[in-house]
From TrEMBL:
Record keywords, A-Z: DNA recombination, DNA replication, Endonuclease, Exonuclease, Hydrolase, Nuclease
MF terms (GO), sorted A to Z: 3'-5' exonuclease activity; endonuclease activity
Signal sequence annotation: none
Domain Nuclease SbcCD subunit D C-terminal, residue spans: 304-393
Superkingdom to which the source organism belongs: Bacteria
Family listed: Belongs to the SbcD family.
GO process terms (BP): DNA recombination; DNA replication
CDD domains xrefs: MPP_Mre11_N
Subunit structure: Heterodimer of SbcC and SbcD.
Limits of the Calcineurin-like phosphoesterase domain: 8-239
Stated name of the protein: Nuclease SbcCD subunit D
Function: SbcCD cleaves DNA hairpin structures. These structures can inhibit DNA replication and are intermediates in certain DNA recombination reactions. The complex acts as a 3'->5' double strand exonuclease that can open hairpins. It also has a 5' single-strand endonuclease activity.
Length: 431
């Protein structure tokens, strides 16, 4: 009796956001530390295939240093593990054309990059092999779908939700081609990817947005059929399963992309696929290389106790300046204080921290408590919020959801190539 081959081992990671800054502070040290961990993990876990499910870069025109970091990682990974298959899909932050530009060089190295939706669904299918070179699975590498990628129903066709219908139609075509390919080789397992916002998932409002049409267009989990052995998703930064299906998962981001995500359990997902049963899924925690500090720990406080706490702050020196802890300070004032930043910086002089955000809340005499924080500048707002505020200055009602907001979202999602990314600037990154 022939022994069964060892399980095929996949590592799923997502939302690297290379090139991102946090309130103007570089994240390159954190990215380098994560990629070193990832290289070591590929080796120690004897990984056969690496799945990177979108938002490789933080913007559609990433800095040269961020691009160099990505290609340096791919080169080192392939030198260390020549038999490693790598599958990369584009996310809503990525330029599809920029991601796919080096494909002629990458494809012979078994690095498969799918930035955009091709006309032929067969071009999305990627074979996965094990260390012996044996074909073990097929990946339906579906990237982030933009509105322009979706078919529309014929006039008179009864469709409840045009957008979901369009996504479902794309998926049905892709999975039909994938099933046929799997059947050619005796019934191989089918793996799928996606970069999307799904129904029933946990969203970080300050650092992620509902893509592909906004609030009303979270996608149902049944878009990924039950015969998918594993579904590797990207876009949401908090790792989580979807719809009660443990094998349909967001890997999450490798480290917090805003201070609101500092308590997320950042991880990669190791998936073992064998002929004996369903896929086995195991979370691999990613070490935190930079701490996130807040003064005070919760809420806001008057300047005197805040400054006293800052002067008493005792923080150990980090291995490098760009690995020093981030610090958020929230102060409550009765009136504007032009000298506040200078006083905070003086209190922090010589301390190995990086002040990433100084926020102010104003006390209201009527309530004796905190009011809304001071109005942020435009750099701190998501483009949709800027649009809504501009609308409010001209019209008494909110912008219509189905017309004006839908058109604005379509405009954001249509940006690609060398156009500016449809995302908020560095103050609070948007997934």
């Amino acid at each position: 009796m022939t022994a069964s081959p060892p399980p095929l081992r996949l590592l799923h990671t997502s939302d690297w956001h290379l090139g991102q800054e946090l309130h103007g502070l570089s994240r390159e040290g954190e990215h380098r530390a994560f990629l070193e961990w990832l290289l070591a993990t590929l080796d120690t876990e004897q990984v056969d295939a690496l799945l990177i499910t979108g938002d490789v870069f933080d913007s559609q025109n990433p800095p040269v240093a961020a691009q160099a970091l990505f290609y340096e990682f791919l080169a080192r990974a392939k030198r260390a593990r020549p038999d490693l298959d790598v599958v990369v899909i584009g996310g809503n932050h990525d330029s599809a054309a920029r991601l796919e530009a080096p494909n002629a060089l990458l494809r012979p190295l078994d690095v498969h990059v799918v930035g955009s939706l091709p006309k032929e669904p067969e071009r999305l299918l990627v074979p996965l092999t094990d260390r012996s070179g044996r074909l073990r699975a097929v990946v339906a590498a579906i990237p982030f779908l933009r509105l322009a990628d979706l078919p529309v129903p014929t006039p008179g066709e009864d469709v409840e939700d045009t957008l979901v219908w369009g996504v479902r139609t794309v998926h049905e075509r892709v999975f039909a081609a994938a099933r046929a390919r799997c059947a050619e080789f005796g019934g191989l397992p089918l793996i799928a990817t996606g970069h999307c916002y799904m129904v029933g998932t946990a969203l970080s409002e300050l650092s992620e947005r509902r893509i592909l049409g906004g609030n009303q267009h979270a996608l149902p989990v049944d878009l990924f059929p039950a015969d998918c052995t594993y579904v590797a998703l990207g876009h949401l930064h908090k790792p989580q399963a979807v719809g009660g299906r443990e094998t349909v998962r967001y890997a999450g981001s490798p480290f917090p992309l805003s201070v609101t995500e500092k308590d997320y359990p950042h991880q990669a997902v190791l998936v073992e696929i064998s002929a004996e049963g369903p896929a086995a899924v195991r979370a691999l925690p990613i070490p935190r290389t930079v701490d996130y500090l807040r003064v005070p720990r919760t809420g806001a406080a008057a300047p005197e106790p805040v400054l006293a706490e800052l002067r008493a702050l005792d923080v150990a020196e980090a291995p490098a300046r760009d690995l020093r802890p981030y610090l958020e300070v929230v102060v409550r004032l009765d009136r504007p204080s032009p000298s506040l930043r200078h006083e905070v910086e003086q209190a922090l002089e010589g301390k190995p921290v990086r002040l990433c955000r100084l926020a102010v809340e104003y006390a209201t005499p009527e309530a004796g408590g905190p009011a809304a924080a001071e109005t942020p500048d435009l750099a701190g707002l998501h483009p949709e919020e800027v649009f809504e505020r501009a609308w409010a200055r001209l019209y008494p009602d909110e912008p219509p959801e189905e017309t004006h907001l839908a058109a604005f979202r379509e405009l954001l999602e249509s940006l690609d190539g060398d156009a500016p990314a449809a995302s908020a600037p560095a103050t609070e990154p948007v997934a």
